[in-house]
C-alpha cells in the first residue's frame, strides 16, 4: 500500500511564509476549487491570526454560474476574488485589496500559497506586469520562496507548491503531480475519467471526439484507439493514453469541473 508522501519540507516552508507574511493569498483552481483548497495551510494561518484571501484562478476554463457557486461556498469562510491570468480579470479587485492592506501597515508582505499548478506564478506576473515568476504547466516549477517587490512598501512572497500529506493519485487528480512520476498512471487516469464522466462527460467528446461510456477503463481504451496509440502487435498503448489524458487535464485541455 502506497504511503502518503511526507511533507516536512513544505510544512517548514508554509510555516516560514506564515510567520513572514502579513496576509495570505491562497490560489485555487477554478475547475476543482474546493479540492484545491489547502485546509492544513488555512488552519495554520488561522492559528497565527493571518487573514486569508482565496483567489480562484483559471476562471476562463469554467462557466460563470459554476464559479459563482464555488465563490458563495468559500465566502462563508474567507473573502474570495475571481481571477483569470489568461484574461486578466480580477486584477483590479486584487490591486484594490492590496491598496487597502498597505494603508494598515508600513510594509506589507503577501504570501502567495497553493497547490502546484494552480497558477501562483501567473498571478504574481499579472500583478507585477512582467515575468518575474516561472510559469509552466509542469507542476513544481517554483523551487524556493522568493521576495518580489510589487510597490514601494508591498512585497509578494512567491512559494513552491505546498502539498500536504496526500497520496500521489489524489495529487495527480488535482493536477499537482507529474504524470510521468506516477507509479500507476493508468489507475489514476481511470479515476480521473470516472470523475469527468460523473460531472461533465461531454468534456471527453470535446477533447478527443470520443463518446464516453459508463466504464472509465473502456473510455480510456476508446481514447487510445482514437489517438491511435498502439504498441507492437497493434494493441492499445494504455499507459501512454493514460499519461496523455493526465497531461491534458493539467494543461486545461479537458473542460471539466466539479465542486
UniProtKB/TrEMBL annotation:
<keyword id="KW-0342">GTP-binding</keyword>
<keyword id="KW-0963">Cytoplasm</keyword>
<feature type="domain" description="CP-type G">
    <location>
        <begin position="8"/>
        <end position="165"/>
    </location>
</feature>
<keyword id="KW-0547">Nucleotide-binding</keyword>
<dbReference type="InterPro" id="IPR023179">
    <property type="entry name" value="GTP-bd_ortho_bundle_sf"/>
</dbReference>
<dbReference type="InterPro" id="IPR027417">
    <property type="entry name" value="P-loop_NTPase"/>
</dbReference>
<dbReference type="GO" id="GO:0005525">
    <property type="term" value="F:GTP binding"/>
</dbReference>
<comment type="similarity">
    <text>Belongs to the TRAFAC class YlqF/YawG GTPase family. MTG1 subfamily.</text>
</comment>
<feature type="binding site">
    <location>
        <begin position="57"/>
        <end position="60"/>
    </location>
    <ligand>
        <name>GTP</name>
    </ligand>
</feature>
<protein>
    <recommendedName>
        <fullName>Ribosome biogenesis GTPase A</fullName>
    </recommendedName>
</protein>
<comment type="function">
    <text>Required for a late step of 50S ribosomal subunit assembly. Has GTPase activity.</text>
</comment>
<dbReference type="GO" id="GO:0005737">
    <property type="term" value="C:cytoplasm"/>
</dbReference>
<dbReference type="InterPro" id="IPR030378">
    <property type="entry name" value="G_CP_dom"/>
</dbReference>
<dbReference type="InterPro" id="IPR006073">
    <property type="entry name" value="GTP-bd"/>
</dbReference>
<dbReference type="Pfam" id="PF01926">
    <property type="entry name" value="MMR_HSR1"/>
</dbReference>
<feature type="binding site">
    <location>
        <begin position="117"/>
        <end position="122"/>
    </location>
    <ligand>
        <name>GTP</name>
    </ligand>
</feature>
<dbReference type="InterPro" id="IPR016478">
    <property type="entry name" value="GTPase_MTG1"/>
</dbReference>
<feature type="binding site">
    <location>
        <position position="161"/>
    </location>
    <ligand>
        <name>GTP</name>
    </ligand>
</feature>
<dbReference type="InterPro" id="IPR050755">
    <property type="entry name" value="TRAFAC_YlqF/YawG_RiboMat"/>
</dbReference>
Amino acid at each position: 500500500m502506497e504511503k502518503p508522501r511526507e511533507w516536512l519540507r513544505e510544512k517548514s516552508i508554509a510555516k516560514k511564509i506564515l510567520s513572514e507574511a502579513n496576509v495570505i493569498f491562497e490560489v485555487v483552481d477554478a475547475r476543482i476549487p474546493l479540492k484545491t483548497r489547502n485546509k492544513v495551510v488555512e488552519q495554520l494561518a488561522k492559528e497565527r491570526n493571518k487573514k486569508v484571501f482565496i483567489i480562484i484562478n483559471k476562471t476562463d476554463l469554467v462557466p460563470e454560474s459554476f464559479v459563482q457557486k464555488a465563490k458563495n461556498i468559500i465566502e462563508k469562510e474567507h473573502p474570495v476574488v475571481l481571477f483569470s491570468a489568461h484574461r486578466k480579470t480580477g486584477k483590479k479587485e486584487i490591486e484594490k485589496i492590496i491598496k487597502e492592506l498597505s494603508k494598515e501597515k508600513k510594509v506589507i508582505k503577501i504570501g502567495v500559497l497553493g497547490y502546484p499548478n494552480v497558477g501562483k506564478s501567473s498571478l504574481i506576473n499579472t500583478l507585477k506586469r512582467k515575468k518575474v515568476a516561472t510559469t509552466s504547466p509542469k507542476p513544481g516549477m517554483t523551487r524556493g520562496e522568493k521576495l518580489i517587490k510589487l510597490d514601494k512598501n508591498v512585497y509578494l512572497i512567491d512559494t513552491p507548491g505546498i502539498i500536504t500529506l496526500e497520496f500521489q493519485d489524489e495529487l495527480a487528480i488535482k493536477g499537482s503531480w507529474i504524470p510521468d512520476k506516477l507509479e500507476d498512471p493508468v489507475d489514476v487516469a481511470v479515476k480521473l475519467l470516472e470523475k469527468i464522466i460523473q460531472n461533465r462527460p461531454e468534456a471527453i467528446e470535446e477533447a478527443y471526439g470520443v463518446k464516453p461510456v459508463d466504464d472509465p477503463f473502456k473510455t480510456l481504451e476508446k481514447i487510445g484507439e482514437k489517438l491511435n496509440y498502439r504498441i507492437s502487435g497493434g494493441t492499445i498503448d494504455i499507459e501512454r493514453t493514460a499519461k496523455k489524458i493526465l497531461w491534458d487535464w493539467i494543461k486545461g485541455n479537458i473542460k471539466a469541473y466539479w465542486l
